[in-house]
Design a protein that fits this description.
transferase, about 290 residues, Dihydropteroate synthase, magnesium, about 40% helix, two-stranded antiparallel ribbon
Length: about 290
Amino acid sequence: MNHQPLPLRIRDRPFVWGQRTYLMAVLNVTPDSFSDGGEFNTLETAVTHAKALINAGADILDIGGQSTRPGALEVSLTEELNRVVPVVRSLREDPGFATCPISIDTSRSAVAKAAIEAGADIVNDVTGGTGDPEMFSVVAALGVPFVLMHSRGTPETMQKLTHYQDLIGDITEFFTVQIQKATAAGIQPSQIILDPGIGFAKTWEQNLDLIRNLSQFQTLGYPLLVGPSRKSFIGHLVNQPDPKQRVWGTAAACCAAIATGSTDILRIHDVAEMHDVCRVADAIYRPKT
């Protein structure tokens, strides 16, 4: 399969792949996420920040209640639900968010179901469906888009699992297997978005190789989401231990991802800055239609 993915419509917003880069803004309602843990983990601060992200130009809001930074410990199901569901519900009840697509960043089917029922629209699973055997069937029943990401192990173990026979080939094989499982469970192919998982079970050199070769995933025929924002490989390259000070490095990675001609969505923290980066990069690298 090698074709332009079918457009998606989420809350009356069209997502036409290939025309421009869409921005998925990160909203971590956790005390321990790698770059902004503890900043937005109350209902009031989360809602205020969500509004700022949308006003800055985000196309999708991605809400997560479980840190996936390297070494992070898993929280209980109850804790994750208590972190994310009230935020989703509060945003959806706000008239200003009536048409804003909301994604739930979780690897638990119970959290996915509760968040979608509270008003979320997309399930973003960093385990690509390997973390919960019920995820595919639950997402199929919900009938919502599914972001299928490549990773290995858990946040505690993933950076010990970085050996690949063929980085791009191994990730492509993972995608192929998981897409087959997802569609067999009833998820529509047009609802699947792939994420190669930058920073997840990859060394800094492998992350660079991954960005250089993003176009190879186009043969699968699905839209591609890429998440380089503030990642440690950028910190390594610019000798910057503070993730918040990696904005310029993130901008370079985002521009490079767009230049490959295969990136449809960028998952980012610094929305205003990356909005401008994407508009200029899109004008340069995307052909006029």
